[in-house]
Design a protein that fits this description.
By secondary structure, this protein is α/β, with parallel strands linked by helices. It has 2 domains: about 5-215, 3-Layer(aba) Sandwich (Rossmann fold), CATH 3.40.50.300; about 225-285, Alpha-Beta Plaits (2-Layer Sandwich). Helices cover about 30% and strands about 30% of the residues. The strands form 3 sheets. It has a 6-stranded mixed beta sheet with strand order 6-7-8-3-9-10, with helices on both faces. A 4-stranded antiparallel beta sheet has the order 2-1-4-5, with helices on one face. A hairpin with a 2-residue loop joins strand 9 and strand 10 (about 210-215).
Length: about 300
């Protein structure tokens, strides 16, 4: 499968610190690619380098088959929403979007249909004539997404698209991303919300402190971090550190522990031999949060 985005050894230093450190990854065409990491991990800086807004200190970027200066010639095929979108505060959403289309050379008579479609898709129809200075953070976020959707693109790059949205708005954005993918588009979405990525992403990459720590399809990551079975066991302060289990939760006289699927027979035998009763089990899998923690030992703002 061809790559919509390919970066190699991408590096950026700011103020004596390396904020993006030798990042290499490929985003397959037609995928929903989750670019995951805590705030400050280097996600936005990487996205700015993809779009030519920040010049890398080292490494290369390929976007929709174009490299180097040629990337400028294909940017009309990319819809982007970056953290902190610019706008004219005293103009309405409609007028701001019209300015964006004018900057792309779209004639005035051809703008109205595109603007109405984008506004409707992000749920701003009833507020489209208000000046953006009166918009809440969530409404400004919807406006920024509308800007990325103004024209039909091959690739959409969305930086924290659900930031500031209420749960209903977050669901709408997830559905929108899924619709884009279903129509054959590639969506590269950065987020620090792992629960969000669990629901919509076919591929993921984890960033931590400027470095890429894991990347691949969901299936590849599940193979690399095998499925676990969760057991409910009796608990009376027993020491299980020598057993092939991982304690998830202790609740009074019971506990939940995780066991790698291929170690389950041995673990059951050792638990019974240690006098620990197995009270039940449930099928489990490594969530994206658990995979990330296994790699770098950090948590996320998970909703």
């Amino acid at each position: 499968m061809a790559a919509a985005i390919a970066v190699a050894e991408l590096t950026k230093r700011l103020g004596g610190s390396t904020v993006v450190d030798s990042v290499s990854l490929e985003v397959p065409e037609g995928s929903v690619f989750g670019f995951l990491g805590p705030n400050g991990a280097g996600k936005t800086t990487t996205i700015r380098m993809l779009l030519g807004l920040v010049h890398p200190d080292a490494g290369s970027v390929e976007l929709l088959g174009a490299k180097g200066p040629a990337i400028r010639s294909i940017l009309h095929r990319v819809g982007a929403m970056i953290e902190g979108p610019g706008y004219v505060p005293y103009l309405s959403a409609r007028d701001n979007l019209s300015r964006l289309l004018a900057a792309e050379g779209v004639r005035r008579r051809d703008r109205a249909a595109a603007i109405e479609s984008a506004i409707e898709r992000v749920g701003l129809t009833n507020a489209a004539n208000k000046p953006l200075s009166r918009y809440s953070m969530g409404m400004r976020q919807r406006f920024a997404i509308a800007g990325a959707l103004l024209r039909d693109r091959d690739l959409y790059i969305l930086d924290e698209p659900t930031n500031g949205l209420d749960p209903s708005g977050m669901r709408e954005v997830r559905r929108l991303i899924q619709d884009l993918a279903a129509s054959g588009k590639t969506v590269f979405v950065s987020t620090h919300l792992l629960s969000e990525a669990e629901q919509i992403c076919s591929h993921v990459a984890f960033m931590s402190q400027g470095r890429l720590v894991a990347a691949g399809s969901r299936e590849e990551l599940q193979r690399e971090f095998p499925t676990e079975v969760v057991l409910r066991i009796s608990w009376a302060g027993q020491v299980v550190s020598h057993l092939p289990v991982r304690v998830l939760e202790v609740n009074g006289e019971q506990a939940r522990v995780a066991v790698l699927e291929d170690r389950l027979p041995d673990a059951l035998a050792e638990l019974v031999a240690a006098g620990i009763s197995v009270l039940g089990f449930e099928n489990g899998h490594r969530s994206l949060e658990e995979i990330f923690i296994a790699e770098v030992g950090e948590g996320f703002d998970v909703r």
